[in-house]
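<tokenise_the_fold>
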Amino acid sequence: MVGSLLLGLYDGASKLHHVGVTSAFTVARRRELVLELAPLRENAAENHPWRDWADWADDQRMPGAGSRWNRGKDLSWEPLRIERVCEVAYDHLQGDRFRHATTFQRWRPDKSPQECRYDSSR
């Protein structure tokens, strides 16, 4: 099953930043997402901007890194080709990250990933 979706926003220099996750899915929906997102798994790591998360520097949060809130929890992730946009509900951005949980609203086939920028989310 899919546990959560990693969320990203582009900055002014077209760098994709990890800004949080959305995970409020029913068990049935988590199973459906495996099949729905399967085509995006093929060759996803080849050009994924987060594929080198092990080389993480302080200028960007990276998925898979440890968390002070979830010590010992499996935070592994699998990249998807960056071709889909989802809309999430959220309280606010705190700095460069979503504060508190986000809630998946819907897929946005009318938007390209490059349109998902910090300046469009505030």
Remarks:
- The longest strand covers residues 16-22.
- Residues 27-37 form the longest helix (11 residues).
